[in-house]
Design brief:
The complex is a heterotrimer of chains A (276), B (311) and C (342). Chain A is mostly helical and 276 residues long. In chain A, 78% of the residues lie in helices and 0% in strands. Chain C has 13 helices and 13 strands. The chains are: A mainly alpha (276), B mainly alpha (311), C alpha/beta (342). The interface between A and B is large, with 84 and 79 residues.
Chain lengths: 276, 311, 342
């Protein structure tokens, strides 16, 4: 093969790779553009100050926005301590078989399809309690969140210099003191990043909420009652034939994607700051 | 009187003693250790609980219908016929097709991102975009596909002489492809980055072009890792629910052609679980269990290969 | 950080003042436009929130059996086996009448006449194109295109499907034999939409599609509705009036009556009551005030609530059955206390 054809091949290959790379991310921009185009006209004060209205009447998405905030934050409150403790466990006993099993378990949880989490939480909570509730939705989302947070906790802990840990132990610090005064403060940024990324993921999750949080056209703050969320609203309104509802759904999508992006950017910012 | 005093003293001593023992019992070290154990047990319990719950809840169905349903193809709750094969078939078909479609795109973007001489600005742009793609909620992908992708598919169907449904297998595959690229590309990127720099440099110093280096050095080195990445992203797409449910057309039988409406396990559950009871609910939960088992197996296989490739 | 967390925790766990009872119901999407309107007005006038989720009639019934909702709504009466599963008596309270219309997506929105045989054959996949000689012959004034017909059915278990298939089973022997009556069937062809809204949306989007939905959904979305032949051989346009004409003279006291394929000469043949289903003994709600609120709501629906039916294209309940209905409602109890006396 002459150098010329080889160079030519290389050039074609480079162009092809470039072209496919651009093509790959094209849908993202199509979606964002479409969302901005369709959602921007729906973004008004009504959308964030009014609740759902009967079919054919202009309403808002306040109930869903509040619901998303409550359900996702509650899920975070449930998932974070469990995940951080599990992460510490895996780290403390990293040489034992238990930790290896836990590691695999965490990976398995992250592989459970979200709809199945919905089914199981329905069987665990909704059926026995006799009601759909925001709390059951939060539990479902918390389960989804655990793997991410555990992994980031363990990864962070592993990055703490062994010298530091041993120094504090050598100075006579107890197990608990060592963890609360030395290890946790150092790993907060890393854990926080994991939590934020997990939060960004569950805030947009719909499937597990279909059988748990259920939805609610009224503004509801009681976690023992059904509650609406932005993804539920988008799902229901998107499948409807009503122009008005489509508009609200586009507006809601724009808000949701904004929340998700902010959380991701925040997580990245913390990482970059911490790395420095 | 004396007796009473003694009694009180004894009692209070008792109380103090008890209090002290509680304090001893509840020292911070122990609380923390217990919490660690409880949390770890909870996490283990979740997976066990899932499997047990699903098994128990699908027991009714297994008892009366059994595994023979895996081979049947009629799904009719009215007559208590619950053939599972169309949904299992469609689930695997949709995720394999989207996986195949995603390969050239994922590989290209992974190659672009791992090019050490590439344009840094462009790379960070691609990188960020990829992360954002992974972050877009499934329901938004579905909503977008329903309103922009299916009209396009409808045009195509009219051209080809199919009924212009716009929803169905084809649309679902396209959306799913877009959704899984960030995952497979992400893993491929990491694996390619792990290829020793010296190998690459050696290739260049022998006068190889970038194409040749990638084809004969990087890809062979990273092969098993890349395959693992694709398997793992297939694990994700198997259980993907919302976007697929919104565009697949909800047809409870084997798809007749590539444009035909169909149903995956997860879209069937999303549509029917709230209304199902008795045998019907048990059948859906059984399907859920099958989905869980398939997904876990695929994930384990992926993780196993990935681990091997990192050695 | 700690402070904000504490505040958040406080906010979440703060006892929410129990000023108003809140009722949760689920089920049919057929009357959902009317219910959402009624419950909106009810909240404004009575201060009671009624959370109604349109998950389909089948879903409503199953969730009532599972006791996860306070009431269900369905366009199909409970079947015997469903009744057995509920283990306790369930009352069917009709709330209004509606028509299931055959709607379609054809250029120019022509008004078509269709017979029960044709509808059955379309959904069985036997009539494949719009310019089928049988349809064309019945509609000589419309130039029908050679376009594939895409039938749209319900993906969820639906009372609307029940009404539709109940009618077809009565009118078309072949349908009865091959497909039967039910809330969800094994469709041989077509696309599934979720709920009445989902089917309407599919029909709106797919050229050449045909679907069955409640009248309101077609009218609100400016979709055409077909005229259907009834038993008397007349082609009837679906509207609130022709739906109410389908009601026979005698409605039995339990109110579970099918009025499809009506004998009445001016009645639209795919009409139906739609019901709210409640347990007769509401003590499972554990809260007598909540039970009373539910009783009040039902009383309001069959009286004041009726005025919202006509503007939303539903037919109000016939006057003749109201007093019987009142008697039925008075049978609602909480343990051994009759609710109307509380």
């Amino acid at each position: 093969m002459s150098i010329k054809t080889r160079k030519k091949k290389d050039k074609i290959f480079t162009l092809l790779v470039m072209f496919l790379s651009i093509l790959t991310i094209l849908p993202l921009f199509l979606i964002l553009l479409y969302l901005i185009k369709a959602g921007f006209s729906a973004l008004n004060l009504d959308l964030i100050t009014k609740v759902s209205r009967p079919i054919g009447e202009r309403g808002g998405a306040l109930n869903s926005i509040i619901g998303t905030l409550i359900i996702s934050l509650l899920a975070t409150l449930i998932a974070t301590p469990i995940s951080v403790f599990t992460g510490l466990f895996i780290f403390e006993y990293r040489k034992k078989v238990v930790s290896k099993i836990l590691n695999i378990t965490v990976r398995l949880i992250s592989g459970i399809p979200s709809i199945i989490i919905g089914i199981v939480v329905y069987l665990w909570m909704v059926k026995p309690l006799g009601k759909y509730s925001a709390l059951s939705g939060s539990v479902a989302l918390a389960i989804m969140m655990i793997p991410n947070t555990v992994t980031s906790t363990v990864e962070t802990l592993e990055m703490i210099p062994i010298g530091l840990r041993e120094a504090s132990l050598a100075l006579g610090a107890s197990f608990a003191k060592n963890i609360t005064k030395v290890i946790l403060p150092l790993s907060i940024p890393g854990i926080l990043t994991g939590v934020l990324i997990g939060l960004g993921r569950i805030a947009g999750e719909t499937a597990p909420l279909l059988f748990t949080a259920f939805g609610n056209p009224f503004l509801n703050l009681n976690i023992m009652k059904p509650m609406d969320t932005l993804p539920l609203l988008i799902y229901n309104y998107a499948l409807s034939p009503f122009e008005e509802w489509h508009k609200i759904a586009w507006g809601a999508s724009l808000i949701l994607i904004f929340i998700v992006l902010i959380l991701n950017v925040l997580a990245k910012w913390i990482v970059s700051k911490w790395n420095r | 009187m004396e007796n009473l005093k003694a009694l009180i003293q004894r009692q209070s001593g008792n109380i103090i003693y008890r209090f002290a023992s509680i304090k001893k019992l509840l020292n911070f070290d122990k609380i923390l250790k217990i919490s660690l154990f409880i949390s770890a047990a909870l996490v283990l319990g979740i997976v066990l609980g899932f499997v047990v719950t699903l098994c128990v809840a699908s027991f009714d169905f297994l008892k009366s219908v059994g595994f023979s349903s895996l081979l049947k193809d009629t799904w009719n709750p009215l007559t208590d016929e619950f053939g599972a094969s169309p949904f299992i078939f469609t689930t695997i078909l949709v995720s394999s097709l989207s996986l195949l479609l995603s390969i050239p795109f994922s590989l290209s973007i992974a190659i672009s991102l791992s090019d050490k001489k590439g344009n840094k600005l462009l790379q960070s742009f691609l990188n960020t975009s990829l992360d954002l793609m992974a972050a877009v909620p499934s329901v938004i992908y579905g909503f977008w596909a329903l309103f922009t992708l299916s009209p396009l598919v409808r045009l195509l169907q009219t051209k080809l002489g199919f009924a212009p449904m716009g929803v169905g297998l084809f649309t679902a595959v396209i959306v799913l492809t877009i959704m899984i690229i960030p995952f497979s590309a992400g893993i491929s990127r990491e694996v390619i980055k792990l290829v020793p720099q010296e190998l690459e440099e050696a290739g260049y110093s022998l006068g190889a072009t970038r194409y040749e280096v990638i084809r004969s050095i990087i890809l062979p080195q990273a092969k098993s890792g890349i395959i693992a990445g694709f398997i793992l992203s297939m694990g994700r797409s198997l259980g993907e629910t919302m976007a697929v449910t919104m565009v697949i057309g909800n047809f409870n039988a084997f798809p007749k052609n590539i444009f035909s409406p169909a149903n995956t396990i997860s879209s069937l559950i999303a549509n029917q679980f709230n209304e199902a009871s008795g045998l019907h609910q048990s059948a859906l939960i059984f399907l859920g269990l099958i989905l869980l088992v398939i997904t876990l197996l695929v994930n384990l296989a992926g993780a196993f290969i990935l681990k091997g490739s990192r050695r | 950080m700690k402070k904000t967390l504490m505040i958040l925790l406080g906010l979440l766990l703060a006892p929410i003042p129990a000023v108003t009872a809140e009722l949760t119901g689920a089920g049919a999407t057929f009357p959902q436009p009317l219910y959402s309107k009624m419950f909106d007005v009810y909240y404004k006038t009575r201060g009671v929130k009624v959370n109604y989720q349109g998950i389909g009639s089948g879903g409503g019934i199953q969730q009532l059996i599972a006791k996860t909702v306070d009431f269900a709504a369905s366009d199909a009466p409970m079947t015997t086996s469903e009744g057995e599963k509920a283990r306790s008596e369930i009352l069917h309270i009709p709330t209004c009448l509606g028509a299931v219309v055959i709607t379609y997506n054809l250029k120019g929105n022509p008004e078509l006449k269709l017979t029960s045989d044709m509808i059955a054959d379309i959904y069985l996949g036997k009539i494949k194109y719009w310019n089928d000689p049988r349809i064309q012959k019945l509609n000589p004034d419309v130039k029908l295109p050679k376009l594939v017909i895409t039938p749209v059915y319900r993906a969820d278990a639906s009372g609307t499907t029940f009404i539709f298939t109940d009618y077809l089973s009565k009118a078309v022997p072949e349908w009865k034999e091959k497909m039967g009556v039910g809330k969800s069937l094994n469709w041989p062809i077509g696309v599934g939409g979720k709920g009445n809204p989902g089917v309407t949306s599919m029909v709106q989007q797919i050229e050449g599609s045909v679907g069955y939905v409640e009248l309101t959904y077609a009218l609100q979305n400016k979709l055409p509705t077909a005229l259907i032949n009834n038993k008397a051989g007349k082609f009837i346009k679906p509207n609130a009036e022709s739906a109410s004409k389908a009601v026979g003279k005698n409605v039995p006291p339990h109110m579970k009556v099918s009025i499809t394929d009506t004998d009445s000469p001016d009645g639209y043949p795919i009409s139906s009551f739609t019901w709210i289903l409640v347990y007769r003994d509401l003590s499972y709600l554990k809260d007598v005030n909540k039970a009373k609120e539910l009783y009040n709501l039902l009383w309001w629906i069959i009286h004041e609530g009726q005025e919202f039916a006509t503007p939303m294209n539903y037919a109000p309940l016939p006057q003749s059955i109201i007093s019987q209905l009142e008697n039925n409602l008075k049978r609602l109890v909480f343990g051994n206390q009759p609710l109307w006396k509380i």
